[in-house]
């Protein structure tokens, strides 16, 4: 059996960031506007701090300004809401991202709804959720957006294909299903109560794995030649007391059967960050009513 083609998220995201950088320089020189991204982290979780720093580093590489707000884990909800109000009104800030999950004493839905929809670069505000569901122009969640860019790049038109989304989260599963519907796929959304998950996956030309369970989707569930997008990023124990990252798909098995597959790391993760920057550029352009191309490059 031939090996699946690897869909290289590192290379794809580097190209996307180059394109974003060129646009950022254009609007800086042409309009004296520098897109600004504010990233808010509540709590001192070291892994989350690494992610936040990585997002800010990538933003700076693209010529954007970034603002980092790291708050203690016991920050009262109203302090966080006050910070968001300030960012909503700050003309230097075009994109706001509040790192999830938040500590349990904070109502994350309330926090999401406090962000101005036109600065909501995660695309989690109900206004953006509604725009995606109803087919309008909003901000699209970064992981589904990055996944769709890779799918369209690899497959061209998705029209008529059977797609399965394994996982129904607000962050990935649901918005991914909407994007696939928009691309004229026949979409199944599977979850913990799905009967015969292997059977459902076997019917699919496109598999989106977004369950957060390490290597749960087995190689022999994959239809030969299918395209597999592995959204999972799970840190698991490895030999010698070390850890390693694995996806939600049993990569070693799936790579023998699939037509193409995204690796972990180096697949969806870097695309998520590139799409965050793309959404920030899009938000800045819309806030200033600049006429630059929109965020759906495949349209
Ligand atoms: N409001 C909000 N928006 C988010 O987008 C968000 C969030 N909260 N909370 C945390 C998760 C996690 N996340 C990742 C993004 C990129 C990589 C990434 O680039 N991963 C690299 C590997 C990184 C490593 O080695 O640890 C890769 O897959 O190649 C990982 C994780 C965004 N998140």
TrEMBL record:
GO molecular function: methenyltetrahydrofolate cyclohydrolase activity; methylenetetrahydrofolate dehydrogenase (NADP+) activity
Organism classification: Bacteria, Pseudomonadati, Pseudomonadota, Alphaproteobacteria, Rhodospirillales
Primary role: Catalyzes the oxidation of 5,10-methylenetetrahydrofolate to 5,10-methenyltetrahydrofolate and then the hydrolysis of 5,10-methenyltetrahydrofolate to 10-formyltetrahydrofolate.
Keyword annotations from UniProtKB, A to Z: Amino-acid biosynthesis, Histidine biosynthesis, Hydrolase, Methionine biosynthesis, Multifunctional enzyme, NADP, One-carbon metabolism, Oxidoreductase, Purine biosynthesis
Ranges for domain Tetrahydrofolate dehydrogenase/cyclohydrolase catalytic: 7-122
Gene, per the UniProt record: folD
NCBIfam families in UniProt: PRK10792.1, PRK14186.1, PRK14188.1
EC number annotated for this UniProt entry: 1.5.1.5, 3.5.4.9
Pfam families: THF_DHG_CYH (PF00763), THF_DHG_CYH_C (PF02882)
Protein's recorded name: Bifunctional protein FolD
Residues annotated as binding NADP(+): 167-169, 233
Keyword presence, Amino-acid biosynthesis: yes
Reaction(s) the record says it catalyses: (6R)-5,10-methenyltetrahydrofolate + H2O = (6R)-10-formyltetrahydrofolate + H(+); (6R)-5,10-methylene-5,6,7,8-tetrahydrofolate + NADP(+) = (6R)-5,10-methenyltetrahydrofolate + NADPH
Gene Ontology BP terms: L-histidine biosynthetic process; methionine biosynthetic process; purine nucleotide biosynthetic process; tetrahydrofolate interconversion
Claim: ATP-binding is one of the keywords in the record: no
Pathway: One-carbon metabolism; tetrahydrofolate interconversion
Source superkingdom: Bacteria
Record family assignment: Belongs to the tetrahydrofolate dehydrogenase/cyclohydrolase family.
InterPro entries (alphabetical): Aminoacid_DH-like_N_sf (IPR046346), NAD(P)-bd_dom_sf (IPR036291), THF_DH/CycHdrlase (IPR000672), THF_DH/CycHdrlase_cat_dom (IPR020630), THF_DH/CycHdrlase_CS (IPR020867), THF_DH/CycHdrlase_NAD-bd_dom (IPR020631)
Subunit note: Homodimer.
GO terms for cellular component: cytosol
């Amino acid at each position: 059996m031939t090996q699946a083609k690897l869909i290289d998220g590192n290379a794809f995201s580097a190209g996307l960031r180059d394109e974003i950088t060129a646009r950022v320089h254009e609007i800086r020189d042409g309009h004296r506007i520098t897109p600004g991204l504010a990233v808010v982290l509540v709590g001192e979780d070291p892994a989350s701090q690494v992610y936040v720093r990585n997002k800010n580093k990538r933003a700076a590489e693209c010529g954007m300004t970034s603002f980092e707000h790291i708050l203690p884990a016991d920050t009262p909800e109203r302090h966080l809401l006050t910070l968001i109000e300030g960012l909503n009104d700050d003309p230097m800030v075009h994109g706001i991202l509040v790192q999830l999950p938040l500590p349990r004493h904070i109502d994350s839905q309330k926090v999401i709804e406090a962000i101005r929809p036109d600065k909501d670069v995660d695309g989690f505000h109900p206004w953006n959720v509604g725009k995606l569901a109803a087919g309008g122009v909003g901000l699209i969640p970064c992981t589904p957006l990055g996944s769709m860019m890779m799918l369209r790049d690899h497959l061209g038109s998705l029209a008529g294909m059977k797609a399965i989304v394994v996982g129904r989260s607000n962050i990935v599963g649901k918005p991914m299903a909407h994007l696939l519907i928009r691309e004229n796929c026949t979409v199944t959304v599977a979850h913990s109560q799905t009967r015969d998950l292997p059977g459902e996956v076997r019917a699919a030309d496109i598999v989106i794995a977004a369950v957060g369970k390490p290597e749960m989707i087995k190689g022999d569930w994959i239809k030969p030649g299918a395209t597999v997008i592995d959204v999972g990023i799970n840190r698991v124990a490895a030999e010698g007391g070390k850890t390693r990252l694995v996806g939600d798909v049993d990569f070693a098995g799936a790579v023998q059967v699939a037509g193409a597959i995204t690796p972990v790391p180096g697949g969806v993760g870097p695309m998520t960050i590139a799409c965050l920057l793309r959404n920030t550029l899009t938000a800045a352009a819309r806030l200033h009513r600049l006429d630059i191309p929109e965020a759906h490059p495949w349209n």
